Amino acid sequence: IQLTQSPSSLSASVGDRVTITCRASQGISSYLAWYQQKPGKAPKLLIYAASTLQSGVPSRFSGSGSGTDFTLTISSLQPEDFATYYCQQLNRYPLTFGGGTKVEIK
Amino acid sequence: EVQLVESGGGLVQPGGSLRLSCAASGFTFSSSWMSWVRQAPGKGLEWVANIKQDGSEKYYVDSVKGRFTISRDNAKNSLYLQVNSLRVEDTAVYHCAREYSSGWYGIDYWGQGTLVTVSS
């Protein structure tokens, strides 16, 4: 199952609302996770089951979607949110990640 | 505190082998599916393999099938990845990872990774 993330990069300002999309090549129900990765660090789980916020993750992050189309939204971008974001499907082997979306400071 | 500490990476020639290890602590290792995920320099994440709690099920990405073998020793709280017939394109940081809720919810803990460099 291929996951296509868009955009591959974006520039945004602190306080902006940011939306990242992840499209699956076939239906994956709600078996989708979102991660944040900062340079030189391991990824961090943000959202699982497409829309459930992982414990400790700020509420400005939210996820939605099912089937083939998914969205990660950051309601008000904070300085610590500048990072690369990945989606991952867990519906079928081999598990796959999207190509990533780099969120940069405008 | 959950900790995953990888070791065993290094520089190896094409066709060579390595055994990557991951020491787990801070959780019940024998109750968790475990994965290896790699990231080539400057590239995205790639899931490599995972293994069920008792080792009875193992899955691999197509590009490593027949060359890589995932295994675990629950008595030692350790995960392994035997990597054989290495190719230049296998160069990456290899992360050990714990799957959340038997994998249905993604990966909730990651190690910092061990770098494998395949070069002549």
How many distinct helices of chain B?
A: 0
Compute the average pLDDT of chain A: 97
Unreliable parts of chain A:
none
Tally of helical segments of chain A: 0
Helix content of chain A: under 10%
Helix content of chain B: under 10%
- Radius of gyration over C-alpha positions of chain B, nearest whole angstrom: 13 Å
Explain this structure to me?
The complex is a heterodimer of chains A (106) and B (120). Chain A has strands at 3-6, 9-12, 18-24, 32-37, 44-48, 52-53, 61-66, 69-74, 84-89, 96-97, 101-105. By secondary structure, chain A is mainly beta. In chain A, the strands form two sheets. In chain A, strands 2, 4, 5, 6, 9, 10 and 11 form a seven-stranded mixed beta sheet that branches. In chain A, β5 (44-48) and β6 (52-53) form a beta hairpin. The model of chain A has no long low-confidence stretch (mean pLDDT 97). Chain B is mainly beta and 120 residues long. In chain B, the strands form two sheets. In chain B, strands 2, 4, 5, 6, 9, 10 and 11 form a seven-stranded mixed beta sheet that branches. In chain B, strands 1-3-8-7 form a four-stranded antiparallel beta sheet, with no helix packed on it. In chain B, β7 (68-73) and β8 form a beta hairpin. Classes of the chains: A mainly beta (106), B mainly beta (120). At the A-B interface, β4, β5 and β10 of A face β5 and β10 of B.
